[in-house]
Amino acid sequence: MERMRWLFLIAFAALLSGAAHAQFYDLDGAYHCVTAPDAACAAAEATPPAPAQPSAKDEEKAKEAVVPSFPDVVERVKKRAPEPADIRLLQQRAEAKDPRALEVLAWCNLNGIGMKPDPLAAYFLYRDAAALGVPNARKNQNAIYERLSSDQRQQVLMKQDAHP
């Protein structure tokens, strides 16, 4: 074990004593490349290579990382062209009980905007929005209920009985 430790220390010392790259200061704190530039300084100051062009996957990740503004999301929903980040924002804000987000997300669920149509989800989102005082949310919820099939109405009743 002691021998391995010594071998490691020798290897580490050899690594440290290898060829030094240009330093902009020496141990005394003098800025070598400013006071006495040499070839190593010129090589260190050379223009770095251009960064690699981002791949389509990198661009998609960057696009997802940008959080859209709520008014922009609403505009894209009105045009029936929301992006995945828009739907995620609506879902996050709806989970936080944002009344406007609940209403917009309910509309998206009802009409299949940015997702598959889900009138049951829309029904419950409008219920939550109505509980928060969103105008016409209760009327929209009732209108959806009237259009539901008997099986869907049964699902609503079962869910309401389970979670009043």
Architecture overview:
This protein is elongated. The protein has a domain of 99 residues. 65% of the residues lie in helices and 0% in strands. Helix 8 packs antiparallel against helix 9. About 9% of the residues have low confidence. It contains ten helices and no strands. With 164 residues, the protein is an all-alpha fold. The protein starts with a helix and ends with a helix.
Q: Determine Rg (CA atoms, Å).
A: 31 Å
Distance between the termini: 68 Å
* Basic shape: elongated
- Low-pLDDT segments, ≥5 res: 19-32
Helix content: 55-70%
Summarize this structure briefly.
With 164 residues, the chain is mostly helical. The protein has helices at 2-16, 32-35, 39-44, 56-65, 70-78, 84-95, 99-111, 119-131, 137-147, 150-162. Helix content is 65%, strand content 0%.
Name some characteristics of this structure.
164 residues; mainly alpha; 10 helices
